[in-house]
Prior knowledge:
Layout: E1 4-10, H1 14-30, E2 35-41, H2 48-58, E3 62-67, H3 73-83, E4 88-91, H4 103-110, E5 116-120, H5 128-146, E6 158-161, H6 162-165, H7 178-184, E7 189-193, H8 209-227, H9 232-258, H10 269-301, E8 308-312
Parallel strand pairs: 1-2, 1-4, 2-3, 5-7
Antiparallel strand pairs: 3-8, 4-6, 5-6
Helix pairs in contact: 1-2, 5-8, 9-10
Amino acid sequence: xxxxxxxxxxxxEEESIDPLFSRLLPxxxxxxxxxxxxxxxDGSKDDTLATLQRLASTNPAIKIVDFAxxxxxxxxxxxxxxxxxxxxxxxxxxDLQNDPADIPHLLxxxxxxxxxxxxxxxxxxxxxxxxxLPSRVANALISRASGVHxxxxxxxxxxxxxxxLEDVRLYGEMHRFIPIYAxxxxxRVAELPVTHHPRVTGKSKYGLERIVKVLLDLLVTCFLxxxxxxxxxxxxxxxxxxxxxAFVCTLTALVLKWSGHASLVQTPLPLIAVTTCGxxxxxxxxxxLAEVATRTYFESQGKPPYKVKRxxxxxxxxx
Length: 319
């Protein structure tokens, strides 16, 4: 039984793979535990796959899941979880910003009795306006909405006990919310400051548009937790709000007409208010319904949200 599984999503990281493994392998050997590395090639267009294959050819503990196309970090992490065998699972980035030397500290924290240890990039080495400030705002919002207070949900470097991940299925950008799912299911979640290095190779795959995705995924996460078993509460709430809006608009229009200030056809405000409110609410509700339908589709058919093209050093029967 493999004790530790390291999950590394890789997308166009050919320059960082060799330096990363040269630092990671000695750390894993020093733990004196059985280990494996699951590198997920997320449809890279450079020589990332060839570099990983060269490393895997020299060590059977280095395993590769190669995607047929780019699926995103969340799908890559889910694939790593699916194909791993470790009792302890540690995902990390391939861009050299996470430090392998922090892995023993995460393991030591788990041994204190915690189920999840989340890395906290206390001294983050990213652009202040483009990455750090939006991240802090998002982390504060996520903590407040979920009730699970962490400083850094976006840090990939975390440590999980395998049983915590057994019932977790990830979609969208939801890998950052695993500590929330775990806490809601009774897991003990701790946070540990970790080293964060400036990026020296390649370029970041994320921009400000990711904030919108995270906020929408947060909406879905809260919905699934609070209203999946009682959706009438949220749908009925919006329905009552629409009815109340329609009543107020109608009453206002009648008052304007009876007072002689304006007829019902002289102002477009009631129509604009009802139309925009209806479209906005309909869009949100359709989005939530689509999220539920997506999960129903994947879970009912046992289909993962990714497509694997090849496996290296992994028995297909295991998956």
